[in-house]
Write a structure and sequence with these properties.
The chain is elongated, with a radius of gyration of 54 Å. The chain is mainly beta and 812 residues long. The strands form 14 sheets. A five-stranded mixed β-sheet has the order 1-9-8-4-6. A five-stranded mixed β-sheet has the order 11-18-17-13-15, with no helix packed on it.
């Protein structure tokens, strides 16, 4: 009775609390308990299939579960076998951070494939619950109730595809991280998926893999589910710029175990790359600018890595090709060190002190620059660059001064002496001078006619003396003695010839001696005569007789004939007398010349344009009488040096109206010597543009000859770029001529290919749409083939007709 009353009292109390809106125990819904993983015992589940569901629970919250938690199961269309819908759970594994495994025997009984698991527990005195849902893949039963009917499971075909839209792009020499998004675009699950990436096997695609495997394995992908595929390749520097085709090879199964294999093309665009290290040398200079043989010079240049992508360390710079007969290190060592050289550095200057050997002749000599460095993998690398150094031989200037010879008449076989001074007026010492005296016929040297000077230092003077004697056969006249000074090298010292005259008289009485007229001096204005121009010739005629006067003197000039080496068919137009008088005759008259007196005459002469560049001789013919009307004839020679004008022409200098910054363009030049003399030391220099070699040496360009020279240049900045080609050479008179020709272009930035554009094997951009839509300006292949075919048919017919006619003639 008492127990009944107590129960009634408790029920009433609960009803009062509910009416008052008071909850006895509040449950908080959390996500602290989750389904970490689950699996089913059968791969294919139909309606009526019995299987086991294994669920692993995991606690992710920080609290502690007390008491005995329960797991409520809402099985959906599945029937729990041998268990109720609520089961007790041991919380020990969950509290320890581990997993609690629950095994549920189930049977598929419908189409609702979602199972709901509700985990109820107490944490810190509070009631909590975590709700998790599991979806079971199942297959609908066939409409045919006959269980023996076979179902076509291949129609449940999952479809996998990479959904990336952009083409992966990388430069040669860089790493390509290929991130692909793989999606099951069908409504069927794919399982046991293997995806292998196969790089392009086309020529020009060079790579290294950065991962051990190019294969991805995926357990399954449900309908519309996505996952990522990651591959990594290093595109090697030597790869050509183009778009390559690789493949993804898929192997997977549907839920019924049906195998499917397929491939998908993956396009990879490779752009022209940049080397990690690209050492170059530029701004090559020598001090002094002209290197003379037998002297020292300082060579300097900049080493830069501007075209590289990364810094280079521990560079050792040295010179190759040094020898005792060429360049050697004058002092110091043949090595320069550069600790580090980043790409953005303008370059590091290195210098070498060189000595040019005495035996080096005029010309351009190659020297190799060796650049040894450590690459990013600490491997030793060596680069060699070739430069050219121009060598000149210093010209020695030797003057013959203070010539002393007998001024009077030498009679009979009396000996006489001739002396003179050799003066080195150049700034270099002159070695191995040979001095030779060559007297006229009738005069013989008594002393040695040849003297050798081993060394004549700069600024010094050497006095030389020679003794001569007339022979018994010596004629009464003015005899010339040739003084020749010759060096061991014609390029270093041009042979000098100087003449001195002495008057010799036979052993007759003075009263019966012949009066002689000599040219005791002459000069031209200017000193060196230009072909095709007028010049003045001043001549002094001297009567050497001490007693007799000469009278009725007739003087007429004859010049040597010009000899042309031209191959021109009209070479006859270039022959003839080298010199012709201007506004006068080549003959003039002198009334008389007193004994030991001189008469001066000035003539204006014209030099023909095609006169050879050399020293020409004018023959001065003399006809005169003495005071007794005895007639005499004599001949004197006058030497006149002639030089030719110099000129040249070049082909058109073709510079594009628009160029890209730092993109090289080759200018091909044809240079022709249109003058009549050799252009020595011809050089072509570039300013205002970038160039690998800003100055090119072409050597000596002969008259009428043509040479060719290529210049690679590029603009170094955007906008209008102006510069010049500078042509220079040495003229016959030793002066340097310089001609400038201006060049200009409009420079634009180097444009990288955009979407829709590809690059060819040379790194040039190709627009695919423009190539496809470009109008066809040439005949189609079909039309060309048709024309060739018609031509062949006509040819065959003609041959047969000819053969038939020949057979008929043979029959007759």
């Amino acid at each position: 009775m008492k127990k009944t009353k107590l129960l009634i009292y408790l029920c009433a109390l609960i009803m009062v609390f509910n009416v008052a809106g008071i909850k006895v125990a509040a449950t908080t819904e959390t996500n602290d308990i989750i389904v970490d993983s689950y699996s089913v015992s059968k791969s294919t589940i139909y309606e009526g299939t019995e299987f086991t569901l294994t669920v692993n629970l995991k606690k992710i919250g920080s609290g502690t579960i007390t008491g005995t938690p329960t797991l409520g199961i809402n099985p959906g269309s599945f029937i729990l076998k041998d268990k109720g819908s609520v089961i007790s759970i041991n919380p020990a594994n969950l509290n320890a951070g581990g997993k609690e495994t629950i095994t549920l025997p189930l049977k598929c009984s419908g189409t609702n494939n979602v199972i709901e698991l509700i985990f109820n527990y107490v944490d810190g005195g509070d009631s909590k619950s975590s709700v998790n849902k599991i979806t079971i893949d199942m297959v609908k039963a066939s409409n045919n109730s006959n269980e023996n009917t076979t179902t076509n499971t291949k129609k449940y075909n999952p479809e996998l595809q990479v959904t990336n839209q952009d083409i992966p792009t990388a430069r040669a020499g860089s790493v390509l991280n290929l991130s692909l998004e793989l999606q099951n675009i069908s409504s069927h699950t794919a399982k046991d998926i293997t995806v292998e990436f196969i790089p392009s096997k086309e020529d020009g695609f060079l790579y290294e893999t950065n991962k051990m495997s190019m294969v991805h394995k995926i357990k399954q992908l449900k309908a519309k589910e996505k996952t990522n595929l990651d591959y990594s390749l290093t595109i090697l520097n030597d790869s050509k710029a183009k778009t390559y085709t690789g493949q993804l090879k898929y192997t997977y199964y549907n839920l019924y175990g049906d195998l499917k294999e397929k491939t998908q093309d993956i396009y990879i665009k490779v752009k022209k790359g940049f080397p990690d290290v690209n050492l170059e040398i530029n701004k090559i200079e020598t001090l002094p600018k002209i290197i003379y043989s037998g002297s020292e010079a300082q060579l300097s240049f900049l080493v830069n890595n501007n075209a590289g992508l990364s810094s280079v360390k521990d560079i050792e710079v040295s010179l190759l090709g040094l020898s005792g007969e060429g360049f050697t290190i004058a002092n110091g060592v043949n090595s320069n060190k550069i600790s580090i050289l980043p790409p953005d550095s303008p370059g590091k200057k290195v210098t070498f002190n060189l000595y040019a050997a005495d035996k080096m002749t005029k010309g351009s000599y190659p020297i190799k620059v060796k650049l040894k460095y450590q690459d990013n993998l600490n491997n030793e690398q060596i680069v060699e660059k070739e430069i050219y150094l121009k060598v000149e031989q210093k010209k020695s200037n030797i003057a013959i001064e203070n010539i002393k010879a007998p001024s009077g008449t030498i009679t009979g076989t009396n000996k006489f002496k001739v002396s003179f001074d050799l003066v080195n007026t150049s700034d270099i010492d002159t070695k191995d001078l040979t001095v030779t005296v060559k007297p006229d016929e009738g005069i013989v040297p008594v002393s040695q006619s040849v003297q050798v000077l081993k060394l004549l230092k700069t600024g010094t003077t050497k006095k030389l003396e020679f003794e001569f004697q007339p022979t018994a056969e010596a004629k009464t006249k003015n005899h010339l003695i040739n003084i020749e000074v010759k060096g061991s090298n014609e390029e270093a010292l041009t042979t000098i010839n100087q003449y001195v005259g002495v008057y010799v008289k036979e052993n007759d009485k003075a009263t019966n001696s012949k009066p002689n007229i000599i040219i005791d001096s002459y000069a031209t204005e200017p000193t060196i005569v230009k072909a095709g121009e007028n010049f003045k010739l001043n001549i002094s005629f001297n009567n050497t007789h001490k007693n007799k006067k000469v009278q009725n003197v007739k003087v007429y000039l004859t010049a040597e004939e010009n000899t042309s080496n031209s191959n021109n068919n009209n070479s006859n137009d270039k022959s003839g007398s080298v010199f012709t008088p201007v506004n006068s005759s080549n003959t003039f008259f002198i009334d008389e010349i007193s004994p030991k007196q001189s008469v001066n005459k000035q003539l204006t002469l014209y030099t023909i344009p095609y006169a050879a560049a050399k020293t020409h001789t004018i023959k001065v013919n003399l006809e005169y009488e003495d005071d007794k009307a005895n007639q005499y004839k004599a001949t004197e020679l006058v030497s006149v040096p002639v030089i030719q004008s110099s000129s040249f022409i070049t082909s058109d200098i073709n510079i594009p109206e628009a160029m890209s910054v730092n993109q090289p363009h080759t200018v091909s030049l044809e240079i022709s010597n249109t003058g009549k003399t050799t252009l020595d030391n011809f050089t072509v220099a570039i300013e205002g543009f970038g160039s690998k070699n800003s100055k090119g040496y072409l050597g000596n360009l002969q008259s009428g000859k043509t040479t060719y020279h290529d210049i690679e240049l590029w603009p170094t900045q955007e906008g209008e770029v102006k510069g010049s080609l500078i042509f220079s050479y040495t003229k016959p008179d030793g002066k340097t001529e310089e001609v400038k020709k201006e060049i200009h272009t409009m420079a634009t930035a180097d444009i990288m290919p955009e979407e829709g554009e590809f690059v060819d094997e040379n790194g040039e951009m190709i627009n695919i749409e423009n190539e496809i839509n470009a109008p066809k300006s040439k005949m189609s292949i079909t039309m060309i083939a048709g024309i060739i075919g018609v031509g062949l048919i006509i040819l065959i017919v003609i041959i047969r007709v000819i053969k038939k006619k020949k057979d008929m003639i043979d029959d007759e």
